[in-house]
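A quick aside before the break. I want you to see a complete sequence-to-structure record at least once, exactly as it would be stored in a machine-readable document. Don't worry about memorizing anything.
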Amino acid sequence: MTSTYLNKIQELIRSLEAMPNLTVCNAEIAPPATDAAIATARNYAAYRLPAGVEEFYQQMNGLRLEWEYVGEVPDNQTPDSGAIHLLPIERIFGSWKDVTWFDDFEGGDRFKAVKPFDLFQSEACAAFYQEPDAAPQDAVYFHYFGENLCATGYSFLEYIDRLITSRGYLYWQLSLCADTQKNSEVRQFRERMPILFPDFSADAFVPRTSHQ
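That is the input. The structure line, written in tokens, reads:
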């Protein structure tokens, strides 16, 4: 790669910090994952990590980035903000009992296969899907805790590319889901991003339904 993901994310943070009407509340890039951390993840993942995961985590073992737009916001619109929380690789494929699933009531294990990796909000995440005793799928999912799961059809590195382009704008992931195209979050994302970031193009933010 001529430009690593670490380079791209460092540049993203610099560009956000340089914007006069935007406040970066948090920007933390974790050091590269150790061999032991990657081995732990591989063990949890039935010895096959999704495509691109190891390549990415060899550059950084997590990212936390939060920003808020402090300029004028149209009436009746949620203030613009962004949030990214890429978890350490050794955390992703372990147990998510009492977080994504529960065993103390009927149907509580509905989302047992969900393995969050971008826990950008306390109630929502981007995740992998891993059935018990199987390797995780390569495709990324959007999950709203306890409620719904959406297959985007995009790989991990395709997700990261869009994460960087979207600047982590809150709930940009919904633009990749077929069933959420009319959601207010998607509409605001597509309307506001070109205003905040004139170089933004929404062309890559469409559902890949044929791959679901």
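Two observations worth writing down. DSSP finds six helices and seven strands in the chain. The CA atoms of residues 18 and 69 lie 12 Å apart. We'll return to this after the break.
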